Amino acid sequence: MSAGPPIEELHIADAPQMKTDVPGPRSTELIDRQQELDSAAVAYPKRVPIALDEARGATVRDVDGNVFLDFFAGIGVLNVGHSNPYVVEAVNDQTEKLVHTIDFPTEARLDFIEAMDGIAPDGLSGESKMVFGGPSGSDAIEGSIKLAKHYTGRHGMLAFEGSYHGGTAGALSLTGGRKYKAGYEPLLPDVVHAPYPYRIEERGSDADATAVCPAADCCGDLSCARALDRVQSVLEDPYGGKQTPAAIWVEPIQGEGGVVVPPKGFLRGLRDLADDNDVMLIFDEIQSGFGRTGEWFASEWDGVTPDAMTLAKGIGGAGVPLGAMLYHEKFDTWGPGGHIGTFRGNVPAMRGGIRAIEYIREHDLLAHARDLGEYIRDRLREAADANPELVDVRGRGLFIGAEFRDESGTPRKSAVKAVQQYCYERGVLVWSAGRHGNVLRLLPPLVMTHAQAETGLDVVVEAIEAHAPDA
């Protein structure tokens, strides 16, 4: 059986296609109704006022009939596209048969675990265990905190500035962003945040990285050297003021922090420091994993294997919620009920995840993500020639960031908002990221075609050029 239709057949035709000004009258009506009925915590319609009706592949139709190209994919959830028929078929078939299983064995559950082990990085594949808890990435992070504490007997934690790990108490404790924590302290104690390598802030420095870096094989990047030096201090300084942490939590590529790709030596340096100090190394692959970067997991770009990986977002295949942690079997020391959750047996999501893996393989979407991502970054770099405030374009695969700063180096959040609004009005959905909201973030589905990317980038580049300082 062929793994579904080719990517060219997945989408609503002729996107973008704008039939009304946006937001249209029906969208406005539903947004107003939502404001009356829904929580004040609702956020996304504040930035992109749209009410959704239908979505397929890399396209979204609103309730007014406007069709958008989607460079957002539900915050990187819909890696094989909206309503991929090959995935949805399995989800629907399973839903008609059995949905909620807690952690009783089912073929779907065991097949999914085997499928995830099959795409795990070297060092985990064939030697892994998987645990499910609640259905979100935050739940996966909570499970990783429990595993690290249980295995090591320690309670301290080390994470990074610029990080985002989720909205629950433990995940918020690891998260670097202050705005997410405001009003919710105190959170978990003994959490230390070290700098995450951020090359753009080291531009122009002539300091010697090798004089700072604790790595045996320094990559020569000063921001990486300073980050690893701080991590070593936390782990090894007898007067550092904190106990040795149970684990290090790190995003192989920071997402909310601005699609920040660390230098080549960073993850390897963390692996060595963790090994030297009997500390677990846990990679948060919730946004960067499941093919997003053109490898199954972002850490594979650097050839570094973690002790555990937290997973969610795309692993449910069709946007069906599923959170999990994949970890090396030697850490599987907890007993029955060591980590629990009512919805840890979402078998339709597991069927969807299996089908998504099959679809990605059958249609060679990892290679497609690498090629298409390079095309998109090249287009953005060309746009920088016309707008000097676009100071950096980065990413891997279809995990892409473009950072805006003015001539003095001050972050330009307003530039990103202007580009986002311009694109929205012309039928292209993009989003933002970064510590200061000054990074344009693109997370298109892996099934976006080259023609769609070209059409969308025409609009994005036009927006960047239209909002240049001297335009």
TrEMBL record:
Family designation: Belongs to the class-III pyridoxal-phosphate-dependent aminotransferase family.
Assigned keywords, A-Z: Aminotransferase, Pyridoxal phosphate, Transferase
Q: Which residues form a coiled coil?
A: none
For this entry, the protein name equals Aspartate aminotransferase family protein
A single Gene Ontology MF term assigned here is: transaminase activity
Cofactor names = pyridoxal 5'-phosphate
Check the record and name the Gene3D superfamilies matching this protein. Answer: Aspartate Aminotransferase, domain 1, Type I PLP-dependent aspartate aminotransferase-like (Major domain)
Under InterPro entries, the record lists:
Aminotrans_3, Aminotrans_3_PPA_site, Class-III_PLP-dep_AT, PyrdxlP-dep_Trfase, PyrdxlP-dep_Trfase_major, PyrdxlP-dep_Trfase_small
Show the taxonomic lineage: Archaea, Methanobacteriati, Methanobacteriota, Stenosarchaea group, Halobacteria
Give the matching SUPFAM superfamilies.
PLP-dependent transferases
